[in-house]
Amino acid sequence: MKPSTIGASVPQIRAREKVLGAAQYVGDMKVAGMLHGKVLRSPYPHARIVHVDTSRARALRGVKVVVTGADVPKRLWGPIHKEHHILAVDKVRFAGEEVAAVAAIDEATALDALELIRIEYEPLPAVLHPDEALKPGAPQVHDGHSNLAREIRINRGDVDAAFKSAAAIHEATYDMSYQYHGYMEPMGTLVVPDPSGRLTIYAPTQSVFFTRQFTAEALNVSSSELRVIQTEIGGAFGGKLTEDANTPIAAFLARKAGKPVRLVNNRLEDFLAARSSIPTRVWLKMGLAKDGRIVAKDSVIVADNGAYSGLAPEMVLVTAFRTDSLHRLENVRSHARLVFTNNLPSGTFRSFGTQQMAFPLDSHLTVLADMIGVDPVEVQLRNALRTGDTSVHGWRLGSCGLAECVERAASGVGWHEKRGGSPGASGTRRRGVGIGTGIHVTANRQLGNWDGSTVVVKVNEDGRVVLMTGESDLGQGSNTVLAQICAAELGVPLEHITVAQPDTDTSPFCLGTFASRVTILAGNAVIKAAREAKDKLLAMAAEKLEVAASDLVVEDGRIHVKGVEGHGMTVAEAARMHIFRRSGEGILVRATYDAPTEMADKQTFLGNVAPAYSFAALAAQVEVDTETGQVKIVDCFVADDCGKALNPLAVEGQINGAVLQGIGWALYENFEIEEGRLLNGNFADYHMPTAEASPVLRHAIVETIDPNGPFGAKGASETALVPVAGAIANAVADAIGARIISLPITPEKVLAALRAKSKGGRHA
Amino acid sequence: MRDFTVLKPSSAREASRLLAEHGDGARLMAGGTALILALRQRLVTPGHLVYLGGVPAMNAVTYDAKTGLRIGALARHIDVATNAAVKTHYPMLASMAAQVANPQVRNQGTLGGNLCYADPASDPPTCLMALGARVLATSNAGEREIALDAFFTDYYQTALRPEEVLTEIRIPPLGDATGAYARFRRTEAEHRPMLTLGIVARRDGNMCRSARIVIGASTATPVRASGVEQLLEGKPVTRALLDQAAALVRSQTEVLSDFRGSADYRREIAGVVLRRTAASLFGVELN
After folding, report:
1. Taking CB atoms and an 8 Å cut-off, how many pairs form between chains A and B?
2. What is the pLDDT of residues A364-411, one digit of tens each?
3. Which of A108, A278, A390, A723 could be A438's S-S partner, Cβ–Cβ 3.0 to 4.6 Å?
4. Contact call for A428 and B260, based on CB within 8 A
5. Under CATH, which number does the domain B178-282 receive?
């Protein structure tokens, strides 16, 4: 008998076709009569569209459709605020905004057509910084609407009184930049109209049902006039969650043309269109008691949303309060403002705004620990919430491995021997260690008062199983994990499970893949469905074998009487028999799991929003070249509490990827913007960590077996990004005795900090 | 990318004739690593590509103790990096070639193509100029040698005439001189150097008899650090002298300033890289 693959490092079920180059992405797809779409973008951050002339583009041979803001539906669309047209109408609000689109017989013709479109702009005063945007009388990004996209105030306990009891108080203002998702596959969409006008949309979306809803809104049609099928996804990290206009534009072009249209971003277009993470400034004040307890935390957050809000209003709430559930806090206050500007729109990114508070928080805790003379690791441990605790915001931690994560990470880099700075490889180099911590929700009852998942398990007459879900596998491996759960519960080999591509016509309704929600929600639904399917199989076999169903087991695709291997039948035989003996009723089981959580109160934000919470800690050792300011990570150890690693290989991949993305944000990645225009929208000038720039990543998986998790599992894809920047900043500070409080930590900033330190300052 | 016609000359002279015939509408292609990117982005839209890949023996690397090294313009970076004569007689050139860009570019890009492209943020120009290299320009009218000091005229600009084809790189024998080359990348995540520095010097122990020092990547074209050369000449190279040299290079080098490095940072790094590279060449202990 083959053992269950739960907890086994099985390769992803689609890994082979991906590495062989056989997997088909939307950019590979071609259908008969397909046209190629291209988009013209605004060169101005804020301008009135005075005159549009598309006549020469329309006249070009091979051009089938040219559309502008004058042609698109008047209805506004957007994930939360309804604020977009498919193409800019009357004015543009950021440099890169879509103003016209073309469909032509090939890409070269479409590009030629773009060059023939004449658009006359009248540049308007642009607001390019949230501070300017918040000034009275500032130009409005959205006419008739203040530049405040969202404002949040949270107040618990008595912060002001609590500060009076602090032994040490520290305040500082931190700046964080945009981060682009940097997935291998830029966004793209193929739209195929059928003769009735109904559209089939193929896209690498994180949520087929969001894509259907928002595209229907944009086109001003009913959702069922669209069918959305998820294609193979070459990475997403939050960037493919229908905040951008790629799919609506492709759908609009296809409707106009009455022919299939494919619209695939090139890399620069993707930089401009995808909603990179939110540039955020955080003023933070915290106080520690003599024994290391945090007595109060006060923060003011100003987040640059750029021109359109996407899902950012939900992210800024996360920045305002999520990290408070790491620690035993009583007195916290937060004032967060999300601000419209004429910069690139910002939005969903892995860890969803948690990192924008974790970097300030982790930096602060190390500063404060040093002020009271207690080791920063000890301060983290004394404040860490534990299993069974309820946080200051009402989050009930069914499992919490934070303290163990901190200990494992610290011992992983040899914290106690190395803390306090040490000489590096040469006299001008210094080494230091730093620690950071992270939390993430596993699912989140935030976008509506249902946070569950529905799956269908269908047992074919050959005993093979089709698992239908609307949740997308972004490459993180959710299909593999769901198949492992299904195989384990049914007692069939993993290879016998096929996970169908999400398709709005055939998949059960699902919210999609974000908030690390799929393993816990869909996983629990799979357990329910698979058990019910197994019961049906056993009942059928019991009838045939004339034994009690309770005496039967399923192992490796065979049903037999417990302890009597020979006496039984195959799953295939039972499944086939089920059809013929039950009047054609095949085994088709639908099950839903709805997490036992609550919506946060709209005013107080109190409420247990997630069925489980994941934790992580990362310790890094860096070496700083004090003459050049360069920072090299020489050691890095992350401990991740993902509840239970259903597939350690997949968990390891997610942890390593998250840490690398965090390293990129901490040290390398930055948008170079001049007057609202992005200057480095390409991989030669935007520097993600290369293999060469990646340290050896070491990790420990901490298994706390969450009571709500399938086999105890929690989310494992986002948490490990959260502690990275703070740990690196702390390590740099330990090495050189000066602290960098803005990201990325560039060599220039490090040199400036060293100079300021020699003149007696503390921050750069 | 727009459509174009590919022309395949069988000699450099024929390539030159084709360039003359098609004028501005033609582009010369060797390895194509830079050109293909520009074509795909429509930064250049030639009607004709004159592809040199069919010209025989234009990638030969030969060494003669009297005349020095001759590298065919089509030799790839990897060919230079692994050539036995280069490794033996010009180790600084071999090590430079082994570090150019990334493995894909080294296996496809050519030394001649690199020089003609004249991208400031690249390695070969600085290293070859420090080695006193000259290039051979061939046209239908004949051949001429151009010293690299006079070859680079501005960003992406060279002294080549429109119909000239760079066919060979000539490097004089090093004699009793030794050299060192350094490339500084701002972070490990970047491929291109922010600053490059080449030194070729003749020395007796730590006494510098003469030095040829070239700085690049942070300048529009590689430049000689002549002030530093004069400072070092005839003196024992010590930690104190190198500190002086670093100060001099910081104050005398006119550097670029952009998001890949501010002028202040580039100047600072010029001093650091000069001090470290010269220290290793002259055996000065810095720590």
Report:
1. 57
2. 999 999 999 999 999 999 999 999 999 999 999 999 999 999 999 999
3. A723
4. no
5. 3.30.390.50
Q: pLDDT band at residue B144, thresholds of 50, 70 and 90?
A: very high
Residues of chain B in contact with residue A671, where contact means CB-CB under 8 angstroms, are none
In this complex, which of A629, A668, A680 lies closest to B189 when CB atoms are compared?
Answer: A668
A224, A240 contact by CB (below 8 A): no
> For residues B25 and B47, is the Cβ–Cβ distance under 8 A?
yes
Q: Which residues of B touch A428 (CB under 8 A)?
A: 286-287
Q: Which CATH architecture group holds B61-171?
A: 2-Layer Sandwich (3.30)
The residue of B33, B105, B188, B267 whose CB has the most chain A CBs within 10 angstroms, and thus the best one to mutate to test that interface, is B188
Domains of chain A: 15-21+452-594 (3.30.365.10), 31-124+183-236+240-273 (3.90.1170.50), 351-445+603-758 (3.30.365.10)
Calculate how close chain B gets to A748, using CA atoms only, in Å.
6
- Per-residue tokens: A568: 């039984």
Residue A209 near residue A511, CB atoms below 8 Å? yes
Q: Nearest CA to CA, how far is A746 from chain B (Å)?
A: 8
Contact B188 A751 (CB under 8 A): no
Is omega for the bond preceding A744 within 30 degrees of 0, making it cis? yes
* Beta carbons of A632 and B186 less than 8 Å apart: no
pLDDT value at position A1?
54
- Give the Cβ contact number of residue A443 at 10 Å: 30
Q: CA separation (Å) from A170 to A113, A152, A757?
A: 58, 23, 18
Domain boundary assignment for chain B: 5-54, 61-171, 178-282
Which CATH fold would you assign to the domain B5-54? 3.30.43
- Segment A164-192 mean pLDDT: 98
Report the gap between the CA of B261 and the closest CA in chain A (Å): 8
